[in-house]
Structures
1.
Amino acid sequence: MSTQPLPLAGVTVVTVEQAVAAPFATRQLADLGARVVKIERPDGGDFARGYDTAARGLASHFVWCNRGKESVAIDLKDPRGLALVRKMVAGADVFVQNLAQGAAARLGLDAAALCAAHPWLIAVDVSGYGAEGPYAHKRAYDMLVQCEAGLVSVTGTPEQPVKSGVPAADIAAGMYAFSGVLAALVRRGTTGRGGPVEVSLLDSLAEWMGHPLHHGMHGGAAPARTGLAHAVIAPYDAYPTTDGLVLLSVQNDREWRRLAERVLGRPELADDPAFATNTARVAGRAATDAAVAAALAPLTAAEALARLDAAGIACARLNSVAELADHPQLTARDRWREVESPVGPLRALLPPIVFPDAPEPRMDRIPSLGQDTDEVLAELGVPEAEVKELREAGVIA
């Protein structure tokens, strides 16, 4: 039974956002109880609404990043619309924006200006490359930032670099914006003051590149692209069985001994100088992988995993997206819920942060464009006649 509220209950967030990075951050806030009011363009809204129609007619990115929010469609280029947003921000705890560099400042919605006017406000600017420097005004889409940050250079096979299969730069920036808001809320609870928060996609992904970055700066060369293999640990790769690939990872020489004795059936390899240490196994990776592959090849994937588990060796299946959707661990832990949307209920995962002594995270509806405009404007005290006039003028939708 829950004994505490969701941690962000009572927090109001206003956000002028699009695509993935900022929407992903504010969705985390909504999941944990914050009220999130999403400002969208009347003529189509967040452009992520149009990325695809894979989620039963809705865009999969939008479904992923926008549950639990209220959609208010306002034209920020119209002074009347901008005045309404300023009024919303004046009553909010947090403001988040990821407009093109310089656009928020031209509207007076940048973090510095807003925090100067509202000392209690936490205002977050999410950008591609930061507010200053030679890249400040470059367009910064996820794949481009993956390339600029070097992630693509260390991902893929020796022959072919590839981008991450998920928008890693957007996710990284979104999570740092989310944690930045949480930190700023803690500070405001101590000092009574909010303040600006800045997060860039490049800074965020550069932080995630810490291992190859330090390896390259201090070791003389970045880790090589090795496909599913680990660049500096062996064996750590995918190996074929009779009905699919199995991945395993040996993290230290004690585990190698167990693998050699209990899975490979070759106990002599535990003390063989060519295999006994990780350094030796990496140097002789081909022989190491051949020994593992020979032992697993006659087995089914289930047999191989059972043998590895019994020996205490970390292992996994190479699952497809469809297999993730039916993963037995997610099912056993009751991690799936249904979220309301304009096309009916959609299956979605509970967020990863769990508070056992609080209610479940909010899994509220995915809004249609402008679904909450009238209600939010009524809360601001805008008369019905003015709302009608603004809608007829195309300022709201």
2.
Amino acid sequence: MSRGPFRGLPFVDAMTPAVLVLAGPVGRGEVAGLCEDVRGLVGPGRVVVCDVGGLGPAGLGAVDLLARLQLAARRAGGRIRLRGPDPGLRALLDLVGLAFEMEGEPEQREPPLGVEEAVEPGDPAL
């Protein structure tokens, strides 16, 4: 049994963030294009996942690129989340004081799953 051509808009999951794969060392000439890509993918309150697993060795060029991508995303009303950073890149980002949300880690605003706040005896019920 066959169906005719699909009519209407395809199903798009609004909760699934867009993914931008950064592979190999990125030259200075490519940074502006990647920032434009982020601005096109992000929107108010949206997240773009930047897969940095193939970015190469951690260095100040990678830090500069990620800082510019985060700035472009924030100016568009969104943010980026890093996927697959190597430990050297994470350490370098911490060293220069840039905080990025990492995929697979709980957000700072939310406690990890399974963690409940303690209740002291005598606390009023809510």
3.
Amino acid sequence: MSRSEWRKSSFSEGHTEACVEVAVGGGGLCRLRESAEPGVVVVVSVGVLAGLVRVLKVGAFG
């Protein structure tokens, strides 16, 4: 994936050192990384990421 495909979280605006970035690829997979550590990438399915976002939004983890 090229650099231009990475998107920063809207919550990271103005904080360039500690940003969550995501890149959606083919096959229903997406990649996650922290901008401070761009070489460390976690690959998950779009469905898994969507499920995580849903439970975070309802406060399942406090």
